[in-house]
Amino acid sequence: MDHTVANGIYAAEISSPEVYADIGHITGSQALLGALASNNTAAVYEAVHSIVYMPGWHIVRLRVVKAGRVVADVGGPDIIAPVSGRLRSKGRTLATFVMSVQDDLGYVKLVSRFIGVPIDLYRGGSFVMGTLQPAPSTVSAGATVHVRGTSYFVEQLDARAFPSGTLHVALFIHEPSRAVSAESCAAVRLSAWGSVAMHIAARFQPLQSSYQSFVDVLHGTTGGPVYVRAGSTRIAGGALPARLPRHGTVRFAGRSWAIFSWEPVPPARIYFLTPLS
């Protein structure tokens, strides 16, 4: 489930309304298109610089390539989740671009904030940055690593580096205690999903004025339906199952879910539907 949330955060960096809006800022820039059409390299750089540093837009790096040559590249050095496209005017392609809305540090902070587990990034076998220090020299999915007397199980996912190549994202999960190991797989899974949900909820302060934002973030990063109710009154969330008990399982949207619920601010109760497998 930590892997699922980290992957959901990454997916939002390459495909979301904000990303599409930023692509529109780039492809619709008349200053950039005009500079490319007139082969004015200095003007191309100025246009790219203005796009990257435009207040309110969140483009952390933009590279423009024309005829196989980089004509402008503005932004930070360690970037994740690049998105590519074409710059067109009057029906013809003037150049291509690679952009990103997130850097490595921002992604590490988001995962740490939402999941609360150590995370390290590696590229080409070398450590780039992260929160588990000292970083293991090498990591692989399913392995166990020992850092400063603590054992961690490694979950790994691959992400794209800027402008190309692969970043290996390593999540370090504390090995379960003996008490947890004695529980059923279903109970452990539900507890882990619940821990993620409660960790994300703690980021919203005050939570009671941010229920819909919380629901959107938790659903967007996990894919699980989320609801907030006070008795029979719905506060946030979409279409409800026919029944919604506080615990147990429910059939909804063609599949079965386990229910994790808690009352962070009574009488409001949050219901988080988690996949059974």
Explain the overall architecture.
- The chain has 277 residues and is of the alpha+beta class.
- It is 32% helix and 36% strand.
- It is built from 8 helices and 16 strands.
- The strands form 4 sheets. The protein has a 5-stranded antiparallel β-sheet.
- The chain is globular, with a radius of gyration of 22 Å.
- The protein starts with a helix and ends with a strand.
- The model has no long low-confidence stretch (mean pLDDT 91).
Provide a concise account of the structure shown.
With 277 residues, the protein is an alpha+beta fold.
Largest sheet: 5 strands, antiparallel
- What is the average per-residue confidence, as pLDDT, rounded to a whole number? 91
Q: What's the alpha carbon Rg, rounded to whole Å?
A: 22 Å
What is the H/E order?
HHHHEEEEEEHEEEEEHHHEEEEE
DSSP summary: helix tally? 8
Order of the strands making up the biggest sheet: 8-7-11-10-9
Instruction: Give the overall silhouette.
Output: globular
Considering the chains and any ligands shown, give keywords for the structure:
five-stranded antiparallel sheet, alpha+beta, globular, 277 residues
